[in-house]
Amino acid sequence: MTIKLKPLKDQVMVITGASSGIGLATAFAAAKKGARLVLAARNEQALQEIAQEINNKGGQAIAVGADVGRQQDIQRIADAALSHFGGFDTWVNDAGVSIFGRLLEVSDEDNRRLFDTNFWGLVYGSQMAAMHLRNRGGAIINLGSVLSDTAIPMQGMYSATKHAVKGFTDALRIELEEEGAPVSVTLIKPASINTPYPDHAKNYTNHKLTLPPPVYEPEEVANAILYAATHQKRDIMVGGGGKFMSLTNKLAPGLMDLSGEKLMTDQQLLDEPAQHREGTLHQPGEGGRIHGRIKDTMPTSLYTRAVTNPVVAGAVVAAAGAAALALMGKKRKDNGARKFKQPNTKPEMVEVVEIVEEVYVTPPLPPQRPL
């Protein structure tokens, strides 16, 4: 069955995890395009303020306080969409929590809570969306990660949740295609993104947290989500850095393991004391903030812009592969890991990624801004 997705101005879009970060950036971007919004997150007060801001500027949005790890809350989100807008056309599963800590240190309680939100919340949302859309058509958009394709230390269980998300999403897509349902199922796989993610993480370390470079801005993920809402796309990697990691892990997994062992722990820890170590794993956090605190970021990803443009996608992927192979063939010297790299450092991998990002220098699109 042919899948026909509506223009954004004619859509009702459900967004979970909409109170901050990628979800909030997507909400503002979608509202600017004319979509009517059902915003869900645990922080209902922040959501109400966000919805009011959108409505005051000519948009249409409602807020639903919900914990996606509870199936009954997913039902309430769907019921709100049905009662206010008569249904929905796109469901974005963005809600997520995180833990930074070694696998042998993190408690079972915390690990289960992580899976309740990141995996089961996405499963419940996808099942609800599929049942609603299998006859009328629409899009299910799931937020995975570059860590759906590889894994890194300090975020081992988070990596496991995102691997599970990828497996579930791929299987759901196959089953819906098998029955001929007019539903597009897309997995979005962001690289490191400058959101409050490190501030919201449960932190088992003694250090303030950051993300390994290169780091991209959340508006770039929002652009990819809106593209998936109007174009049938199997998956979209956001950031050439993520594509590089994924490709390297496929071609030379031992090299990726070595990179994780030598670099990744230090690139996630700052030489500053930890703050707010409990994070938002078990309770809502602050809402209303899209961006994180990382200063040296890449505002756009030319790689991601290219893969949403079929004319140049193949050439950019080939360039990424060539860069990865060139890096693997280069003679490496191991002078020991440098402790606590600041976000503005440019290790070898980042330099190669920047080359890949510059293969096709397209005119940058203006970042999405609040209404």
Describe the structure.
With 371 residues, the protein is α/β, with parallel strands linked by helices. Helix content is 46%, strand content 15%. It has twelve helices and 13 strands. It has helices spanning 21-32, 44-56, 71-85, 108-136, 156-178, 197-200, 218-230, 240-251, 253-264, 302-307, 310-329, 348-357, and strands spanning 12-16, 36-41, 60-65, 90-93, 99-100, 138-143, 183-190, 192-193, 202-203, 207-209, 215-216, 235-238, 269-273. The strands form four sheets. Strands 3-2-1-4-6-7-12 form a seven-stranded parallel beta sheet, sandwiched between helices. Strands 5-9 form a two-stranded parallel sheet. Strands 8-11 form a two-stranded parallel ribbon. Strand 2 (36-41), helix 2 (44-56) and strand 3 form a beta-alpha-beta unit. Helix 1 crosses helix 7, helix 3 (71-85) runs parallel beside helix 4 and helix 8 (240-251) crosses helix 9.
Task: Itemize the secondary structure elements and their pairings.
Elements: E1 12-16, H1 21-32, E2 36-41, H2 44-56, E3 60-65, H3 71-85, E4 90-93, E5 99-100, H4 108-136, E6 138-143, H5 156-178, E7 183-190, E8 192-193, H6 197-200, E9 202-203, E10 207-209, E11 215-216, H7 218-230, E12 235-238, H8 240-251, H9 253-264, E13 269-273, H10 302-307, H11 310-329, H12 348-357
Parallel strand pairs: 1-2, 1-4, 2-3, 4-6, 5-9, 6-7, 7-12, 8-11
Antiparallel strand pairs: 10-13
Helix pairs in contact: 1-7, 3-4, 4-5, 8-9, 8-11, 11-12
